[in-house]
Amino acid sequence: MSVTKEFVCLLNFLAIISGHRRFHSYNGRFGSSPSDTWNNDAPSRLFQPIPATYRLIQSGAPPQPYNRSREALQLPLLADGEPLANEIYIDIKEGLQYVFQTKSAWAFAAQGSATTAIQAVLDNLIEPGDRVLVGICGHWGDLMADIARRLDANVITIRKRTGRRFSFQEISSAVKRYKPKVLALVQGESTAGVFQPLDGIGDLCQREGCLFVSDSTSVVGMQAVMMDKLKIDAAMTGSQKGLGGIVGLAPIVLSDRAVERIKNRTKPPRGYQTDLIQIAQQWNATGDFQSYSVPLLYSLRESLALMAEEGMENTFERHAKATRQLHQGMEALGLRHFVDEPNDRLVGITTFHIPSGKDATKISDYMLNRHNIFISTGYGEIAGKVLRFATYAINADPTRVENLVMALKDALNSSETNIS
Amino acid sequence: MSVTKEFVCLLNFLAIISGHRRFHSYNGRFGSSPSDTWNNDAPSRLFQPIPATYRLIQSGAPPQPYNRSREALQLPLLADGEPLANEIYIDIKEGLQYVFQTKSAWAFAAQGSATTAIQAVLDNLIEPGDRVLVGICGHWGDLMADIARRLDANVITIRKRTGRRFSFQEISSAVKRYKPKVLALVQGESTAGVFQPLDGIGDLCQREGCLFVSDSTSVVGMQAVMMDKLKIDAAMTGSQKGLGGIVGLAPIVLSDRAVERIKNRTKPPRGYQTDLIQIAQQWNATGDFQSYSVPLLYSLRESLALMAEEGMENTFERHAKATRQLHQGMEALGLRHFVDEPNDRLVGITTFHIPSGKDATKISDYMLNRHNIFISTGYGEIAGKVLRFATYAINADPTRVENLVMALKDALNSSETNIS
């Protein structure tokens, strides 16, 4: 054995110095053998380490996660179907019931970003030709309409200028007029920083016989999402937003009405991997549907545990305080809010106009290069037109907010951020 | 400030001892206020730590990842759109070109398990009514047919008994007879442990004008997948299989022919989040499509780096050796292969019949409880009917294989594993 091994090593050495590809001992029994078309040159880029360095992410993009949510990624792994996996599912389910304030047993997470959750919910609730009413106040509303159209829904949209939200009356008239099977609204339009109140809409939908879908991605963990009280039929978020975890799991909670609708479908949903009944079966230990990323499950579980330990009301209070502190600090620097109406502003994600004479990209470059802080200059329709700051999860912290305001003050005082 | 804070604390204390929910200072400006329906009882389960303990996973389920792939999860995070994110995409693309042996620029990863990749590929290549021919030798073939049917394809299947594979002639006659727009085959049917040779099929498909899709999940990283030479139009895998990473990313490589087909679609694919043209744009730094789980990107990048450093042929040689060692060890224990034909057996995933008089579940329980080793007793049609062992990635190691064989010897010698 040792002699053979050394002989192979010698052959490899000879092959390398003679410029040929390495010797190999494929015997044809195991799959394809290398051949003339074989390329054994490994990409040189991969021989360098990843040059990742720490920076403070205070844009609306995935922010720093809570340390514990991040450290949980390192816990020993599980195999599919181990009993502990089922325990983790139950922990997460109860955590989601807590943060969505619901008694529904249909609480679980799909794999992917929050967009996967939106797609999963619409794909499961909609059958081709169903009339779907989507309220659009910015990028995420447009996204829901796009997703619903790809599912061959009959999509009707109502629209507000970016930075505004709908009144109850506007939604109510549209629902009564169009009689949709599904109403889809964005509770927190994170691109603009707008909060859409949902009070009364669930009752309206029940009276009109339509299902009520709320994209609560930018609200969960930052403000109360009272799913049962608001009579929401499907609400979703992403693990990386207010829950302060890692992107990759997308919590979904369904009402019994929503599940009824899914069970009565004439055909299964188009997406196999996001078939919510099968996902729910796996989470209830009655099915073995798909391989979940166990580190991400651990991490989401820890995010929910942190919220349980802090207490939900304390968490929300911390977010409200940090957001007020940010507003006061930025207003003192002379920044004007992008969302005119104070009551319409989100907790945790705030947008401001670019000060006159200043360049958005130069400000964000300055913030990153001088202060190691990543901020956003807008997304979608308002890309490059605003400054957007996140004060949620680990960033909902007085010292971090103060640091952000001081850094921005420096950036705005610098001539390097002027329009040239 | 301090006085206010202590006053709130006092009120909270009074509220708690008097049995009421905690005082809160919501001012109505920020979203919904708690109300009568508010439940502030955090789930008690979440106050316990996760009881994860280390075990050796040697089933075909996600195995232990390589240490470096796992440790990369902890690197500092990035925000969406940072230049380093684009660098990581390029690193992964070049790594995938290396392991799939292709020059195609259409190499990237979707988010989710390998099933997401299968769904993404079929959804992008198929339009409703398209004729799709699926070869089924076990669970993964059935899955592809199910996914294609949900996409309203006209699905035609050819089928082999589990444990067998198709001859070239069988595939060739079916393609000529049915003239499908897409032929979908499973290169490694991991449930049974069967390897499907693909030689000549790409040429056949080009002659017959159909696209050739290969689910190479259980082959990539264990054996050569010569995508260009085999003229595969779409091949995919999961980050957790032969690449030895963490579940959650699903590499996909497309040929120019496949991309041409996608670009000529009359309507966009049904799944928004798995729109491959938009994913490719993000990976080529010409779009900003979705939030990726950055720790998973780091991890996949490190899996590919490990393979580049070891050298692909050495990696395959290590897998072939470990698999031979497993076969010899298990045969010496008297185990009979589930796959009769030696040439049809996969590298890295091997199935054996349950020895007579022995109970599959008792064997796997014994292995886990006495030896801390998780093995599989089959999945899908052959669930509970086989013993399945993984010798891939970190498990393609002589000491680990020896340890597995010794533990199984002990399990088979024990009366505790007898059928009662």
Automatic annotation (TrEMBL), chains A, B:
Pfam families: Aminotran_5 (PF00266)
Catalysed transformations (reactions): glyoxylate + L-alanine = glycine + pyruvate
Transferase in keyword set: yes
Keywords noted in UniProt: Aminotransferase, Pyridoxal phosphate, Pyruvate, Transferase
GO cellular component: peroxisome
Location of the Aminotransferase class V domain: 85-378
Gene3D superfamilies, sorted: Aspartate Aminotransferase, domain 1, Type I PLP-dependent aspartate aminotransferase-like (Major domain)
Required cofactor names: pyridoxal 5'-phosphate
Protein known as: Alanine--glyoxylate aminotransferase
Organism of origin: Orchesella cincta
Highest classification ranks of the organism: Eukaryota, Metazoa, Ecdysozoa, Arthropoda, Hexapoda
